[in-house]
Amino acid sequence: MTAATLLFLPPADDQPWRWWRIRDDQVEREGEGVPVRDEEVPVIAVAPADAVTLHWAELPARSPAQALAAARVVVSDATAEPAQELHVAVGGEKGGERAIAVVAPARMAAWLESLARAGIDPGAIVPAPLLLPVPEAGYVAADLPGQRVVRGRTSGWADEPLLTELITGGERPSPLARDAVRGAAVAAIAAPAIDLRQGAFARRRQRVVDWALLRRMAVLVGCILLATLAIDLVRILRYSFGADAIEAQADTVARQALPRGANAGDSARLLGERLTRLRGPGQGFTRTAAAIYAIVDAVPESEVTALQFEPNGSLRVSLSLAGEAQANTIKQRLAGAGFTVESSVFQQANNRLTGDMTVRP
């Protein structure tokens, strides 16, 4: 079922518009002037036959740009004006030759401007001769609102006595009955052979917001965000559980180093206290004794004969030296190493100097 409004553009500006209202595949109403708008019924404008030149040619069935370029070559051979300065429209592929329409760009712009002033944005602009049926042979003629047109198998034009006789070679076009013309027009707009609204004059598509698609995209984005958040949460929990496991393992190892009966309390604190007790106050026995041995070993003819570590962190060192020079050297080096040194009275016996030094941090 076809529903549309055919709006016939007048050949001259001083003539009125005429229209047919098509519904249920027949002309339901007709009138003059601007038709009453119905948003659900598309408006198809009919260009006057004398403003459009029609051609038919075999064009490459490839991209629209290639078909248009080939059509311009055909047009340039049949017109005195440069094809680039004309508006050329190419019909659809239906096998065999394709329709080519040529119209002045200024005329197209004027039609669209006048339609826009009337609040009409036509879905298509169809040349008037293409509303007539394709004759099996010869030519057919019919009266359309405001103009009489003639159509052949590969031609169409506004009926003028001298022009028609010249094109048909004297053959008289067969007139079409009123009902036949209207039936052919209904069939023609169902699948127009050509639409002049191409290229620079193509209808601008109104972008409609697909709210359902937007909702689906929002859901997908939300799922992606939730998945990302879940990944981060799992990673955080994994790190937390890992840290807890390492801490528990360290606590177990630390408690193994504690003496029996000392498991109550913080294992790190208890282990630190035990280490302090084992090491002793100050720098501890080990570090203090190591520093003393290193210094004494570096002084010739000097040796340590005894060590006594005190609870206050001091270390009493008994020395056997070759002479007083060695004693002074050791004392100076211990002081230089950051220790406080107190010397006892050294005694001479058997060509050796013996005495004690108390070393404190």
UniProtKB/TrEMBL annotation:
- Subcellular compartments: Cell inner membrane
- Membrane topology type: Single-pass membrane protein
Query: Which CDD domains does the annotation name?
Result: ASKHA_T2SSL_N
Checking Gene3D superfamilies in the record gives: 3.30.420.380, General secretion pathway protein M, EpsM
Query: SUPFAM superfamilies given for it?
Result: Actin-like ATPase domain
Q: What is its main location?
A: membrane
Q: Which residues cross the membrane?
A: 213-231
Keywords associated with the record: Cell inner membrane, Cell membrane, Membrane, Protein transport, Transmembrane, Transmembrane helix, Transport
Domain GspL cytoplasmic actin-ATPase-like span(s) in chain numbering: 43-152
- Domain GspL periplasmic, chain residue ranges per copy: 211-360
Name of one Pfam family that matches? GspL_C
The similarity annotation says: Belongs to the GSP L family.
Q: What is this protein called?
A: General secretion pathway protein GspL
Cite the source lineage: Bacteria, Pseudomonadati, Pseudomonadota, Alphaproteobacteria, Sphingomonadales
